[in-house]
Amino acid sequence: MPSLTVFCDDPPQGLISSDASQKRFFSIAPPAAVIFFVLIFLAGAIVTLDHKENRCRASGSEALPRGIVQDKSNFEMESLGGNPERKKDGRAFKEPPRHPRRHQAEGGRPQARLKGSVLSHFPASEFVVMLFHYDGVVDGWGDLEWSERAIHVAARNQTKWWFAKRFLHPAVVAEYEYVFLWDEDIEVDGFNPVKYLRVVRREGLEISQPALDRRSQIPHRLTARARQGGGGDVHRRFYKSTGHVRCYGNSTGPPCTGWVEMMVPVFSRAAWRCAWHMVQNDLIYAWGLDFKLGYCARGDRWRSVGVVDSQYVLHRGIPTLGAGDNKQAASGSATDRYAVRKRSYEELQVFNRRWREAVAEDGCWTDPYQKPPATNKGR
Prior knowledge:
Blueprint: E1 4-8, E2 14-17, H1 31-50, H2 86-89, H3 109-119, E3 127-133, E4 150-154, H4 160-167, E5 178-182, E6 186-187, H5 193-203, E7 207-212, E8 234-235, E9 241-242, E10 245-246, E11 266-268, H6 269-278, H7 301-304, E12 305-315, H8 327-361
Parallel strand pairs: 1-3, 1-5, 3-4, 7-12
Antiparallel strand pairs: 2-3, 2-5, 5-11, 6-12, 7-11, 8-12, 9-10
Keywords: Membrane, Transmembrane, Transmembrane helix
Transmembrane segments: 28-49
Region (Disordered): 75-112
């Protein structure tokens, strides 16, 4: 079955993988077919109205509380800073100064080389490549040989999740078995995507990520590569306490188990169909989403979400959103980064509030991961 992988141009890009034998081409349906589809849709709408009381879930989002689902998207641009809910409450909104990284001039060539190294690991016969350019520049990539095999999508000052919500609709990527939605600051010398998917299939992972080389910037220790010593290809839990995160033997939720980070996630087709519904149109950093992805893992998140140790990457941790590439931009980059960080934290609060409200309002939904009674066991 085919697979889809997505990478981020400065923060956003995309890779899509699929077996050559499975590739199909889209064509425009003749008028008769269009009318047929419309009639089917209208008939389906009537049935939905007649049996509304029997339907609690939209297709693909059954695992989620109904209020968190956004089954439609738009092409409205979002700012890297400011209030993510400005339209709802009428508060003032200001964009941070714009000093995005440039790919066209010298400043972009190191990133181009990095991406070329990444893409060389994904064989053209198996993967389709999509690059999300958040600086709006695509002309600077035309002289690179691998650029011709990629689909380039450009929108200035937008993030990976903004692009994903608008260009990776489940119906568009339904042909592909897996979606790799990756950031750009990744080195892949220790990574083979074909072997990676072999492990993912064998282990039954619906949502996964390659482990992070221990030289990486590692915010959460669960994602660090397990030390060698017969531990196997995959780990799913973390038992130690580091910083503000406390994990114990009886910890049952993210980020101790059932969790991956957002820079290099890999989704099965079904998991992405669910996760796409949970991505919010206006919350472009997706902070908080990672703690809920386990609901999209089709069953037990303790078994179907994991980190693959045998295939690992190096996360360089380059701050690109709001960062400048030259002296003129440097004076504003600190302000820009603050605006990015501030909005990220605000989005976390907004998403968590929306989730709580959705759970409270949805009488049809039951949390399969309801926390057990508190215990001191393992402390």
